[in-house]
């Protein structure tokens, strides 16, 4: 049930209502993360998840570009472009565009970097249908909503949930022998998405300035939150499925570390 956000409240109070709603579906609490922490996931399953991630990181920023289709004021355009610079360049958040940094993880999983890049260029990385649908929904939503609020919904409804998620994923994957360099795609988002979430809250305060806009923003922010969950849920479902892949990881020796609780990690089949 949607909160009554049309009542009189300060901008900060409205932001608090939004954050409470967003945190009702925290990505860091996904059951797959718990499986990963327990060591109940094989390297083969991680490889399947990695393949889905290559689609995710190559397509998850498309909604940013779609927001630029509209007329907007300078503040909104600057916020959108700043986010795009962080995601698609080496200027501030990582040594390269994030879809390029993601290739370090793919390579560590045994994928051929050039094959993944070529498949991305051709559009041959076919994802779990729910992952594709979730990201397509977010991209289309950027074309029809007020750009500043669409961008804020992405920053707060999605990006704000990722730091806590990656904070759990990184040490869990290190148990399987992955290094910081190989996990950089997750590490750079911990600080980067905290900054983007803060910028999103500024946009909410500035642009969700009427009862009607607040009601609409609540709805679209909830929409983005739910699509993010569905997209990552599909990524994780792939671990237990035999989905078709255009590129497969090569078998390689597995470095492992002992889990404190179970004493060992499951080996890839």
Question: In words, what does this structure look like?
Answer:
Helix content is 63%, strand content 0%. It contains twelve helices and no strands. Helix 8 runs antiparallel to helix 12. About 4% of the residues have low confidence.
Topology:
Layout: H1 11-22, H2 31-38, H3 43-59, H4 62-67, H5 74-88, H6 98-108, H7 113-122, H8 129-144, H9 147-157, H10 162-174, H11 184-207, H12 211-237
Summarize the structure.
This protein has 269 residues and is mainly alpha-helical. 63% of the residues lie in helices and 0% in strands. It has twelve helices and no strands.
Essential attributes:
mainly alpha; 269 residues; Heme Oxygenase, Chain A
- Helix amount, in percent? 55-70%
What do the pLDDT scores average to? 88
Number of helices: 12
Q: Please tell me the CATH architecture by its name.
A: Up-down Bundle
Number of E-state strands: 0
CATH superfamily: Heme oxygenase-like
Strand content: under 5%
The rounded distance between the terminal residues' Cα atoms is 45 Å
The CATH topology name reads Heme Oxygenase, Chain A
